[in-house]
Design brief:
The chain is α/β, with parallel strands linked by helices. It is built from three helices and seven strands, in the order αβββββαβαβ. The strands form two sheets. Strands 1-4-5-6-7 form a five-stranded mixed sheet. A two-stranded antiparallel ribbon has the order 2-3.
């Protein structure tokens, strides 16, 4: 059995699933640190998927929450701002228990992929 905390095991499981679903040649890192486009400061994400389509690099970030209640709009707003700050092409928000209806609405409006 792993010595990692339960939340870290959840992050690793999500990264493993995405590894198996991802395109051939994609690189999965969990966790990953990506420089902020404005400040240059490294920002941590729970996992990242990097690959290239033609000459275009693609970065997808994954953020996970293993909590006891549905995730709310505030988390989605934070992820939207973070995605823009690090220049990710897409962000997946993964919750072990789901999302509030307003959070799902906000995610859809802002291009955040919500997964349970």
């Amino acid at each position: 059995m792993s010595d990692d905390p339960k939340w870290r095991e959840f992050e690793r499981l999500v990264a493993l699933i995405e590894h198996h679903l991802g395109p051939h040649g994609a690189t999965i890192r969990s966790p990953d640190r990506i420089p902020d486009k404005t400040t240059g400061q490294a920002r941590e994400v729970d996992a990242s998927i990097r690959y290239q389509v033609g000459s275009v690099p693609i970065l997808i970030t994954i953020e996970c929450r293993d909590r006891t209640s549905a995730q709310d709009v505030t988390w989605i707003e934070q992820l939207t701002a973070k995605r823009e700050s690090i220049g990710a092409s897409a962000t997946l928000a993964v919750s072990s228990v789901g999302f509030s209806a307003p959070a799902l609405e906000k995610a859809m409006a802002n291009g955040i992929e919500a997964r349970v």
